[in-house]
Each structure stands twice: as structure tokens, then as C-alpha cells.
Design goal:
Layout (H helix, E strand, L loop, with lengths): L2 H86 L4 H19 L1
Amino acid sequence: MTKTQARSADAAIEAAIGLVLATERAANDAVEQAARDAATQVEEARGRARAIEERTERRIRALRAAFAARAERVIAELDAQAAAQDAAGPPSSDDLARVASAARALAIDLTT
């Protein structure tokens, strides 16, 4: 092999090594970028999850408040009805039987 051929071979080897190193750097850069992209996606997903959690909490609070308000209205209506009935006189045996029947039906409904 002549000196020129040896230099050409050395240059080709150096070029090949340079290409391998450049490809390795590019691959490392791509891996690092993929890791950054994944971290960004994870953080965005966490943000969306936090937003969903906050909306859910607001909705639950609103439902609880609405339930409490409705329960208060119903209790007030029942108290008014009870006061009106108490003013009319003691409950009859038919009234007591209806209350007992309603209580049994409610107990069955709550336990099934």
C-alpha cells in the first residue's frame, strides 16, 4: 500500500469515526429531547389532572350545598306539617298505622 493509499484509508477511517461520533451525538440529543418531551407531557397531564380534580371538588361542593339546602327546605316543610297536625289534635290510629307502614317501607328501601 502506498502512502497515498494509506492516507486515503486513514482519512476514510477518520471520516467513518467522525460519522459514528456525530451519529452517536445525534442519537444522544434525540434521547435527551425525547426525555424533555416526555417530562413536558407528564407535567401537562398532571396539570390536566389537577384541573379535573378542582372542577370535581367544586361540583361536589355545589351538590352538597344544593342537597343541604333542599334537605333544610324539606325538613322545614315537614316541621310545618307536623306543627299543623299537632295543632289539630293527637294522631289517630289510622295516622299511626300509616306512619308505621311508611317507616317499614323506608327501612326496606334503605336496606335493599
